[in-house]
Automatic annotation (TrEMBL):
The lineage of its organism: Bacteria, Bacillati, Bacillota, Bacilli, Bacillales. This is Secondary thiamine-phosphate synthase enzyme. Transmembrane segments: none annotated. InterPro entries: UPF0047_YjbQ-like, YjbQ-like_sf. It comes from the Bacteria. Belongs to the UPF0047 family.
Length: 170
């Protein structure tokens, strides 16, 4: 049994939901791992990001977002509207704001407007933070139209996001 770990750094655009098609990067990591059969886990450590498996759609809008992503955003905007003020959602409460101000972490700026992202947390909770893929004969079994996407639901600031990849097998 062998284990291989890698990480991608992905930059969000900070003005709308960011979709990263990471399929080819994951395929290269699988190749580097030299593992023939096993499981590939693709995971986000961020509470406002998701990893999803979806069909690749060739048509895009003027932002470069695939039509299925645009459709998904439209549905989610109705179900979980963007948080624009502190009265849109209960989150974040004062105790959480105080906690964040106490962190010594550059990823959490003291500008409270950047944490008005309850919508991003709720969307990430619905979609989850990881996906697992079967690896057979050094190939991800994702079919001919299946692609892997890393999504940053947070629309409040540009920042680098991490995507962890762990491959376990023979």
């Amino acid at each position: 049994m062998a284990t291989y770990y890698d990480q991608l750094i992905l930059t969000s655009n900070g003005t709308r939901v960011t979709y990263h098609n990471i399929t080819n990067q994951i395929r290269k990591i699988v190749e580097k791992s030299q593992i023939t059969h096993g499981i590939c886990v693709v995971s986000s450590p961020h509470t406002t990001c998701s990893v999803v498996f979806e069909e690749y759609v060739h048509d895009t809008d003027f932002n470069g977002d695939e039509y299925i992503q645009v459709d998904l955003n439209r549905i989610l905007n109705k179900l979980i509207p963007r948080q624009l003020t502190e009265s849109d959602y209960l989150y974040p409460g004062q105790a959480h704001v105080d906690f964040l101000h106490g962190l010594d972490d550059p990823d959490y700026p003291t500008d409270e407007a950047t944490i008005l992202n309850a919508d991003a947390h709720l969307r990430a909770t619905l979609f989850g933070s990881s996906e697992n893929f079967v690896l057979k004969d050094k190939t991800l079994l994702i079919g001919s139209v299946g692609y892997i996407y890393f999504i940053d639901w947070d629309q409040n600031r540009v920042r680098d996001r991490k995507c962890n990849i762990m491959i376990v097998g023979d």
